[in-house]
Specification:
By secondary structure, the chain is mostly helical. Among the domains are: 72 residues, no CATH class; 71 residues, no CATH class. 73% of the residues lie in helices and 0% in strands. It is built from 14 helices and no strands. The protein is elongated, with a radius of gyration of 22 Å. 37% of the residues are buried.
Length: 236
């Protein structure tokens, strides 16, 4: 970057987002150093963008060091760090941070809940998953993708019947592709091959177009049933 050039916060944000998308750690470090040099006090939105940038570049520890030193945090700061932990396989750390977030008076939102459900799925933790689902129901919280995340969480935690109950309670005409995929994959992963095929047929009857994720569950299921022709016929 040229010496003497002055950038405003919008330019910094644009640059931080660009480096996040490139996922180049050496560029992230250079840009971060430049931001610090030219900003006496980092605006919160810029600090949050730096957290995202380092997380996307795979430097989760640097991201947390910055987070830990932030004098002011908002819910975006907390959610960014929680999601970063979970996305990088540090599920326990993510859940501990949610606990700390609540202790400091921040309310969880749809982003937080999505991360919690993902962590519960990864850890196969039935108790956390059930508590989170109960929290959603108790507070009437709904957000896009909630059903698919919850179905996936129960299926991976070995509570496939809970997944099925939740799936059946949802309005079949309003189920999106992700919800169908979560149910099909959950059944297949739990060895309920025939039931997975039945749900796949219902998906087609509802004119929901399968994608690569659907077929990744259906084709092996068809193969195990000795009915691979069925799977390929519907994947054409």
């Amino acid at each position: 970057m040229e010496s003497g050039t002055v950038f405003d916060d919008v330019t910094f944000l644009s640059a931080l987002i660009a480096v996040s998308q490139l996922q180049q750690l050496h560029l992230a470090k250079q840009l971060h150093a430049y931001v610090i040099k030219n900003e006496r006090k980092l605006p919160l939105m810029v600090a949050n963008a730096i957290l995202v940038m380092y997380s996307r570049c795979g430097s989760i520890h640097t991201s947390f060091e910055i987070f830990d030193k932030m004098p002011v945090r908002d819910v975006i700061s907390w959610n960014t760090m929680v999601s970063a932990f979970v996305q990088n396989g540090l599920d326990d750390e993510g859940l501990l941070l949610v606990y700390e977030m609540q202790k400091q008076g921040f309310l969880v939102d749809s982003v937080t809940v999505t991360a919690i459900l993902s962590a519960a799925s990864n850890l196969r933790n039935q108790e956390i998953g059930k508590q989170t689902h109960a929290y959603l129901l108790r507070h009437g919280i709904k957000f896009e993708g909630m059903d698919s995340y919850t179905i996936d969480m129960y299926a991976k935690s070995g509570l496939i019947r809970n997944s099925q109950i939740l799936f059946e309670k949802s309005n079949s005409s309003n189920r999106d592709q992700a919800t169908w995929n979560a149910m099909i994959a959950g059944l297949a992963q739990n060895g309920l091959i025939e039931e997975a095929i039945v749900v796949f047929r219902k998906m087609l009857q509802q004119n929901v177009v399968p994608n690569a994720v659907t077929l990744a569950s259906v084709l092996p299921a068809c193969s195990l049933m000795g009915n691979i022709d069925f799977g390929f016929r519907h994947s054409a």
